[in-house]
């Protein structure tokens, strides 16, 4: 709306002739302006969370979480089976989920997501779980195990101050997760009680695809060519209205936008991608300027989908992405949720591809 | 002697002791309550320009509040807060957000505090905020003249017609004026209470409106009757012009704010509406003057007193709006109108008694109803 038009109609009403000449004298461009915006950092156009999260106070760094594989303390059982032992504590503590925004989280070992448990198919897993919080908590693993190891209300559920021990064999191989299954279920999940559970395939059990399997086993020469990254897509509902205010990979919004993930151009990339976002039925991963092969749940050695640039995961779904920037021009390549809503609320990231 | 001294000393000493005790051993802590601080945020002013969006916010937290992040239309956006840091209770801060807003569309703003609590504010229609300059000031002033001074002046020009009326006609016009004033009283109170709702809760805006009205009314009655006699003639007209002026100030505020926010499309229809609506006000102002000679200087100053505040109201509404101040002024306006109602009422009563009119009350009722009906009818054109 333009005041001039208004005033013209005022004058047009012809209510009072006196003073019309005055109105005409001031009829030029009194208010009209065009909205233009500038003076913002070039990368984001102003669309960013303001400031930096103090990762030291938080006790975890989203960048470090990308490659922090927790293999446990390893020993061999009398029957020759490899045993991996872990200690996990449920700790209810405040974390900074966006610069300056503090959230009363429930965590495993003080971090969100919890420690990434990585084992090889067939390993024995033994986890001593201690509840340091004020509510009931459990560890519920996505994997194959007996009913008595399921970690649900009444089954290996740790009361405050209590410790319980979970023990099972790591199978099937793939990209899995664990989370709390105490009630109310939704709150225990969205407050931060979840983590990654990666089971590498045992090459000896997959002789026809042994080379591919070897590349998935952490620490093998074949595996060391790969740049492996763990990405947990999560979100926080800071005002408890059952809608998320903050979306991210590894909890901190825009963390990989403000400091992109360094990728060596000529080494392949493998992403263990897990969706634990609550309230929104799905989340997604979109890669700019490139395509990837996708292994849904990571439970196969051949891709379940080939040549994708966007993949969608429902709550609790996960998979492995494999791609390469070999031959690409070095530079910044974005990746983010293709729900623009999530991207603009923090789930916006970038790779810095170097030659 | 000693007991007499203690009688004076004891209350302040005990009070100081109690305050010290409450601060030292906070009773909330004794109850082991660890409730999070109460937070509340009000947006008092929105400016849209080439720099983006600027918001003046007032904090109402029980503790200083920190705005950690801002989302616009569901996207985190960078911003600059002046002064930076936490905003203490009832203080204001200005947030400059370099957001490429879209003209004519709505924008939704959400503030995240450090505790993760959110506060929402909606810009209903994004329009460039008028820049404070001589030309816009004049343009808005011009608008104020059209809705305030011009109609009041035109109404007062009916003076010669009123002069031709007889006793009964005059009583009718006075009753009509009372109806008009009753409408203005309700309208002003309503407007003030509505604005009070937009102000920070701590300001107790609605109570402010009522208290301001009561004090204004009583003060004006006391001043008006300081010689022991109710005001009549030109004094009564002046009070009426003052009350109506304060009402028109409120009307100007509403127009200025709505216009600046793009919530009001002011066309010729609306201006005609305002003219007809405020014409009656001018008629009322001259009604007590019919028994005396009216000088031009008096005419002009009464018109200015009643009509010019609309200009001031529009300026403030468009450029420097604060809901709590606006509510306070509207409360004062309502009080001034109530005083005029009381004085015009008693004047009318005296006239009827003196003239020993047979059908005084019926005539008054008809006039009062007509006044209300005219104001209500013409308000149909201008209420938005």
CATH topology of chain A: Immunoglobulin-like
Fraction of helical residues of chain B: 55-70%
Q: Give the overall shape of chain B.
A: flat
Relative strand content of chain A: 35-45%
| Share of residues in strands of chain B | 5-15%
Strand-pairing-aware structural class of chain B: alpha+beta
The main sheet of chain A comes to:
6 strands, mixed
| Largest interface summary | A-B, 53 and 56 residues
Strand element count of chain A = 21
Alpha carbon gyration radius of chain A: 26 Å
Helicity level of chain A, as a percent range?
10-25%
Q: Report the mean per-residue pLDDT of chain B as an integer.
A: 86
Tell me the layout of helices and strands.
The complex is a heterodimer of chains A (355) and B (384).
Chain A: H1 3-12, H2 20-25, H3 55-58, H4 62-65, E1 69-70, E2 73-76, E3 82-98, E4 101-108, E5 114-120, E6 124-131, E7 140-141, E8 163-169, E9 174-179, H5 185-190, E10 194-200, H6 210-216, H7 221-224, E11 227-236, E12 246-249, H8 255-258, E13 261-264, E14 269-275, E15 282-287, E16 292-296, E17 305-308, E18 310-314, E19 318-323, E20 331-336, H9 340-344, E21 348-354
Chain B: H1 2-24, H2 27-30, E1 41-49, E2 52-59, E3 67-72, E4 75-77, E5 80-82, E6 92-97, E7 107-113, E8 118-123, H3 134-156, H4 159-163, H5 167-198, H6 205-224, H7 233-260, H8 268-286, H9 296-307, H10 309-319, H11 323-355, H12 360-382
Antiparallel strand pairs in B: 1-2, 2-6, 3-4, 3-7, 5-6, 7-8
Helix pairs in contact in B: 3-8, 3-9, 3-10, 5-6, 5-7, 5-8, 5-11, 5-12, 6-11, 7-8, 7-9, 7-10, 7-11, 8-12
Question: Could you characterize the architecture of this molecule?
Answer:
The complex is a heterodimer of chains A (355) and B (384). By secondary structure, chain A is mainly beta. Chain A is built from 9 helices and 21 strands. Chain A has one domain (56-354): Immunoglobulin-like (Sandwich), CATH 2.60.40. Chain A has helices at residues 3-12, 20-25, 55-58, 62-65, 185-190, 210-216, 221-224, 255-258, 340-344; strands at 69-70, 73-76, 82-98, 101-108, 114-120, 124-131, 140-141, 163-169, 174-179, 194-200, 227-236, 246-249, 261-264, 269-275, 282-287, 292-296, 305-308, 310-314, 318-323, 331-336, 348-354. Chain B is of the alpha+beta class and 384 residues long. Chain B has 2 domains: 41-123, Immunoglobulins (Immunoglobulin-like, Sandwich), CATH 2.60.40.10; 134-382. In chain B, 61% of the residues lie in helices and 12% in strands. Chain B has helices spanning 2-24, 27-30, 134-156, 159-163, 167-198, 205-224, 233-260, 268-286, 296-307, 309-319, 323-355, 360-382; strands at 41-49, 52-59, 67-72, 75-77, 80-82, 92-97, 107-113, 118-123. In chain B, the strands form 2 sheets. A 4-stranded antiparallel sheet of chain B has the order 1-2-6-5, with no helix packed on it. Chains A and B meet through helix 1 and strand 4 of A and strand 3, strand 4, strand 7, helix 3 and helix 8 of B.
